[in-house]
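Budget justification aside, the reviewers requested a transparent look at the raw inputs and outputs of the sequence design task funded under Objective 1. We therefore reproduce one unedited record. The lines immediately below are the structure tokens for a 461-residue chain.
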């Protein structure tokens, strides 16, 4: 999700469901709450449109236009290597297939770039074949898809540049509404941030740049799937965008919008905080969350539950047996004849000290092995260099044995130190640990036969 620099209060009250593993309140329960709130309630398609406008959309996880990108690359090769007709035969079907998959086309940067290139190449073919009207129509399609797009000087011949520049939307070229600053902070370093044009992508965690006043398209990709935000830059002001990948993963923009958790949240405070974050981005003062237990009315600014006429109205709307069922805990029945008192927890050192002592003994053994290896290296050194003085001929071999001896000495010292410390620590741990207490219990059981009765005393220490 995105947190914008300013979020003014608004009258609408978003109604969001809270589900766990896609199980939560039904559409009928949401409708009951919406009806109770009245005209101020925001849900269904209206809330879905607002969520998409504020939080953007995800590209499809599948790369559905990979073949079309390949066809565009082949069309470019055919255009220059064979003929304009050969290039057109590959480019036109690719453009049509891309336009038939709008989510993949609009939300995935490599698809957008490939689509714009295909339109430009087709326009260039038409222009060079003296079909100016067709070339103009194709370029207008490209600028309608992305007003900020312009072909690179490498792709665009000098004679074609004035024709292309003339068709660029004047509001974009002149930016008459002034300018502001757009600041985007990615969730982490290595994400790709693109503002209006895929070629301006940045992998820095924070991107801040001047931008003409008005709407802009920001694409943030932290993996194979990108998310696109639409932001409006005000003249003379800084507009900030900071996506939250955790909340992005929870948000469900569907027929009944809400938050869907993979596992049950740790506490209601988590749900309240997430709901307040959604409400802040929507510019709402209050948010109604329909959980699996009860409805929650959240004050967005304070991030706290509200207990007022609205919350009472929502609870009444759900009604006993008609709304979201409350969680009820019933104590299991117990047999009075059975002693169910918990056994006193055992105390004592346990196996910990012995594990530590064992590790210390192993370390001491390793130290002894290193000492043995050190002795062998010194023997070899003395064999090659009597009295440990090496000649020019024996120096290479002798120095190697000398280095081995130094290494084994250091390893023996380290292993021995660790071993002594571990053994001492285990002994001290065992000495100071409280003794293990045996479980104790006292139980009196009445009994009766046909002629006699009595009590049985059962004591364990």
């Amino acid at each position: 999700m995105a947190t914008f620099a300013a979020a003014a209060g608004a009258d609408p009250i978003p109604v969001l469901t809270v589900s766990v593993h896609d199980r939560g309140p039904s559409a009928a329960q949401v409708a009951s709450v919406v009806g109770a709130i009245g005209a101020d309630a925001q849900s269904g398609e209206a809330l879905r449109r607002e969520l998409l406008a504020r939080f953007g959309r995800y590209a499809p996880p599948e790369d559905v236009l990979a073949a079309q990108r390949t066809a565009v690359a082949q069309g470019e090769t055919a255009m220059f290597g064979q003929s304009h007709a050969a290039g057109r035969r590959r480019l036109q079907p690719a453009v049509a297939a891309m336009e038939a998959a709008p989510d993949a086309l609009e939300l995935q940067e490599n698809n957008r770039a490939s689509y714009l290139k295909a339109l430009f190449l087709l326009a260039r073919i038409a222009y060079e074949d003296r079909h100016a009207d067709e070339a103009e129509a194709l370029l207008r399609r490209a600028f309608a898809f992305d007003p900020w797009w312009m072909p690179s000087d490498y792709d665009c011949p000098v004679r074609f540049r004035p024709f292309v520049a003339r068709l660029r939307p004047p509001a974009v070229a002149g930016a008459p509404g002034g300018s502001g600053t757009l600041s985007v902070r990615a969730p982490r370093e290595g994400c790709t941030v693109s503002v209006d044009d895929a070629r301006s992508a940045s992998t820095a965690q924070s991107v801040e740049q001047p931008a003409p006043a008005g709407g802009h398209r920001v694409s943030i990709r932290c993996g194979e799937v990108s998310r696109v935000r639409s932001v409006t830059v005000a003249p003379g002001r800084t507009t900030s965008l900071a996506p939250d990948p955790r909340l992005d993963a929870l948000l469900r923009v569907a027929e009944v919008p809400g938050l869907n958790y993979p596992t049950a949240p740790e506490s209601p405070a988590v749900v309240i905080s997430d709901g307040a974050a959604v409400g802040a981005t929507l510019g709402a003062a209050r948010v109604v969350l329909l959980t699996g237990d009860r409805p929650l009315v959240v004050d967005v600014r304070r991030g706290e539950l509200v207990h007022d006429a609205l919350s009472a109205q929502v609870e009444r709307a759900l009604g006993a047996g008609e709304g979201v069922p409350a969680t009820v805990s019933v104590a299991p029945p117990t047999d009075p004849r059975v002693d169910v008192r918990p056994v006193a927890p055992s105390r004592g050192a346990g196996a910990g000290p012995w594990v530590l002592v064992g590790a210390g003994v192993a370390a001491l053994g390793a130290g002894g092995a290193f000492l043995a290896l050190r002795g062998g290296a010194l023997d070899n050194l003395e064999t090659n260099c009597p009295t440990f003085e090496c000649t020019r001929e024996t120096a290479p071999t002798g120095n190697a044995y000398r280095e081995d001896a130094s290494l084994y000495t250091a390893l023996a010292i380290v292993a021995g130190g660790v071993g002594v410390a571990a053994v001492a620590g285990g002994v001290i741990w065992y000495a100071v640990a409280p003794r293990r207490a045996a479980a104790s219990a006292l139980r009196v059981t009445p009994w009766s036969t046909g002629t006699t009765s009595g009590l049985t005393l059962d004591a364990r220490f």
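DSSP finds 14 helices and 16 strands in the chain. Residues 1-10, 320-346, 436-441, 448-452 have pLDDT under 50 and may be disordered. Computational costs for records of this kind are itemized in the attached budget.
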